[in-house]
């Protein structure tokens, strides 16, 4: 390592420590707009890679940051959206997409990961945010930065946020697809997102949202009907982004904070009380021999040594399954993928009708166990296998009805048949599996038949 590189590394550490210092957060501490000037040189600045200095960008940077410095007090404890023009274009209130949630838009058109790093203390940490939603990196790519450099800056951003508040939820959105014509080819965006995922793997404070799969076409590029210029979303695109975020925000208590007042129909019994995991638990799993070679893409499968019941508990002992306001949530695994199964503690030998509703984040993968066999329950359009359903509502609630009679299960999603005669054993419990993404189930009830 050269002395020059060592100096820059030390300066980055110093800067990160400064980011972690308290910010007064009062109007008297606001900084005049003219002081928000982009440093003339990269020398001594944290991170690496491009910092834009076009005249239009410097003017916009100074204007927006100057305005924000006057709003520090009023924006305290906001849910902060941090990014570039895609975030800025969502308006100051994020288009009213999140109801009464207090939000603060801290996007600057044209910004890069290094630009965000430089302005993080004043623009974000000063607000003592209740949560942060991040979408950044596409402009770095246009400026020729490598995926490794972009990810290095993201790591510094994440580290500063975590140091400021180790309990604050952070939602990291995959970089959206664009186009090679915009100097943002699909393979490079995929690489960035892969490195982003690896950088946060195993960190329970951060939830990764698969917004690349949400928007990408069959070639990995943006769709004209959602991104007219192949870079910025239109109202259709923003609507889809908001819908993808809402389940995650509900899990973190920003939305849907009231209990579900649903009452089962006559003859149906609730299998989930909406308040805790009474009647549910983990089954002991058979010990599986470790593979000779470690495959980093292989899903984690925790070993459960003995049966565990969660009666009276609001979450499983590992936090993967959570009961909240009528929803049974299978949370996004910090590992990226983790196979986990939750079962009823009773079995169902009689014929029955099982009804429930489910909601999936983009490309989420789960399943419903009927006595033992698994019925795939996923974000079907992206994750399959039932990709052509006409009535499926992406990132919204969908109804599943499963009728078990004489060893066969007839299954529908919003009235469309997905399995006409799935073979099932003579008896067994009901279960839910988690793999990737967040899945939610609610209004789970069963009616036994003669």
Entry summary:
This protein has helices at residues 3-19, 55-69, 85-88, 113-123, 138-142, 147-164, 186-200, 211-215, 235-251, 380-383, and strands at 79-83, 103-107, 131-135, 170-173, 206-209, 269-270, 280-282, 308-309, 321-324, 327-330, 340-344, 352-360, 365-370, 374-378, 398-405, 408-413, 416-423, 430-436, 439-448. The protein is an alpha+beta fold.
What would the keywords be for this entry?
elongated; Jelly Rolls; Rossmann fold; six-stranded antiparallel sheet; disordered N terminus; 25% helix; 23% strand; 450 residues; alpha+beta; 19 strands; eight-stranded antiparallel sheet
Distance between the termini: 76 Å
Q: Please report which band the strand proportion falls in: under 5%, 5-15%, 15-25%, 25-35%, 35-45% or over 45%.
A: 15-25%
According to CATH, the homologous superfamily of the largest domain is: SGNH hydrolase
Bin the helical content: 10-25%
The run of helices and strands is: HHEHEHEHHEHEHHEEEEEEEEEHEEEEE
Structural class: alpha+beta
Number of helices: 10
Q: What's the architecture of the largest domain in CATH terms?
A: 3-Layer(aba) Sandwich
Number of domains: 2
Largest sheet: 8 strands, antiparallel
Using the coordinates above, name the CATH class of the largest domain.
Answer: Alpha Beta
Task: Tell me the Rg in angstroms.
Answer: 24 Å
Low-confidence stretches: 1-30
Shape: elongated
CATH topology of the largest domain: Rossmann fold
Q: Write down how many β-strands occur, each being a DSSP E stretch of 2 or more residues.
A: 19
């Amino acid at each position: 390592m050269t002395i020059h590189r060592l100096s820059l590394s030390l300066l980055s550490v110093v800067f990160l420590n400064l980011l972690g210092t308290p910010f007064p957060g009062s109007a008297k501490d606001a900084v005049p707009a003219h002081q928000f000037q982009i440093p003339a040189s990269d020398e001594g600045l944290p991170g690496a890679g491009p910092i834009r200095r076009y005249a239009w960008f410097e003017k916009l940077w100074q204007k927006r940051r100057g305005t924000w410095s006057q709003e520090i007090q009023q924006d305290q404890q906001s849910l902060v959206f941090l990014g570039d023009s895609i975030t800025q274009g969502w308006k100051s209130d994020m288009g009213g997409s999140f109801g009464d949630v207090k939000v603060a838009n801290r996007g600057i058109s044209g910004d890069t990961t290094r630009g965000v790093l430089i302005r993080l203390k004043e623009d974000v940490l000063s607000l003592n945010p209740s949560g942060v939603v991040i979408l950044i990196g596409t402009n770095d790519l246009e400026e020729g930065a490598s995926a490794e450099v972009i990810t290095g800056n993201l790591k510094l951003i994440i580290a500063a946020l975590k140091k400021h508040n180790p309990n604050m939820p952070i939602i990291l959105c995959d970089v959206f697809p664009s186009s090679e014509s915009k100097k943002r080819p699909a393979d490079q965006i995929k690489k960035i997102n892969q490195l982003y995922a690896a950088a946060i793997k195993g960190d329970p404070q951060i939830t990764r949202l698969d917004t690349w799969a949400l928007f990408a076409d069959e070639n990995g590029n943006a769709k004209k009907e959602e991104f007219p210029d192949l870079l910025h979303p239109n109202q259709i695109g923003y609507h889809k982004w908001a819908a993808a975020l809402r389940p995650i925000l509900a899990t973190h208590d920003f939305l849907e904070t009231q209990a579900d007042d649903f009452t089962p129909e006559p003859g149906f019994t609730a299998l989930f009380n909406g308040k805790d995991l009474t009647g549910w638990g983990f089954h002991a799993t058979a010990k599986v021999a470790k593979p000779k070679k470690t495959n980093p893409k292989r899903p984690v499968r925790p070993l459960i040594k003995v049966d565990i019941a969660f009666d009276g508990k609001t979450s499983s002992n590992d936090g993967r399954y959570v009961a909240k306001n009528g929803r049974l949530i299978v949370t996004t695994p910090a590992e990226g993928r983790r196979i986990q199964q939750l079962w009823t503690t009773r079995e169902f030998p009689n014929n029955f009708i099982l009804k429930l509703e489910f909601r999936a984040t983009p490309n989420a993968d789960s399943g419903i166990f009927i006595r033992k066999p698994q019925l795939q329950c996923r974000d079907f359009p992206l994750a399959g296998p039932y990709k052509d359903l006409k009535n499926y509502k992406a990132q919204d609630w969908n109804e599943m009805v499963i009728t078990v009679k004489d060893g066969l299960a007839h299954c529908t999603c919003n009235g469309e048949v997905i399995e006409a005669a799935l073979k099932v054993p003579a008896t067994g419990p009901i279960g839910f599996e988690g793999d990737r993404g967040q899945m939610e189930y609610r209004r789970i009830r069963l009616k036994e038949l003669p």
